Amino acid sequence: MPKPDLTFKQVQSSLKEQGMVLCSCDGAGDYRVAFAGLRGDLQELSAYYTADLEDALLTGLLMAQRAKEMEAARLVEAWHASQQVLATLSR
After folding, report:
1. Contact (CB, 8 A) for 16 and 54
2. How many whole angstroms separate alpha carbon 32 and alpha carbon 22?
3. Are the CB atoms for 32 and 49 separated by under 8 Å?
4. What is the domain partition of the chain in residue ranges?
5. Which residues of 8-34 are buried (b: 16+ CB within 10 A; e: fewer)?
6. Residue 33 contacts residue 48 (beta carbons within 8 Å)
7. What are phi and psi for residue 7, nearest 5 degrees?
8. Contact status, residue 67 vs residue 54, Cβ threshold 8 Å
9. Pairwise CA distance, residues 78 & 88, whole Å
10. How far is the CA of 65 from the CAs of 20, 34, 43, 70, in angstroms?
């Protein structure tokens, strides 16, 4: 069964829910996906450009998932570090 065509607004809404932004670059069908929480140069460094709306959606979802995984790893690392500090202080 063929997929229904995605609209820009549908993809933009889906990505926004995941902390991403989608912009139409030049009105000619080019799209830019980036992290919503970043500004200026940092947002541009993370930006992904594509001419395919489905690619923009899938890549944006993947970027958001990877960012969540990285944040979870940082939290686990910080917890382990705090446990080491507590162990040192209790000696």
Report:
1. no
2. 6
3. yes
4. 8-89
5. eeebbeebeebebbbeeeeeeeebbbb
6. yes
7. -100, 160
8. no
9. 15
10. 11, 13, 17, 9
Q: Which residues contact 37 (CB under 8 A, 6 or more apart)?
A: 19
Q: Report the length, in residues, of the chain.
A: 91
Confidence of residue 23 (pLDDT cuts 50, 70, 90): very high
DSSP 11-68: HHHHHHHTTEEEEESSSSS-EEEEETT--HHHHHHH-EEES-HHHHHHHHHHHHHHHH
pLDDT per position as a tens digit, 56-82: 999 999 999 999 999 898 888 888 888
Q: Report which of 31, 33, 34 is spatially closest to residue 51, judged by C-alpha positions.
A: 31
Please report the pLDDT score of residue 4 as a whole number.
65
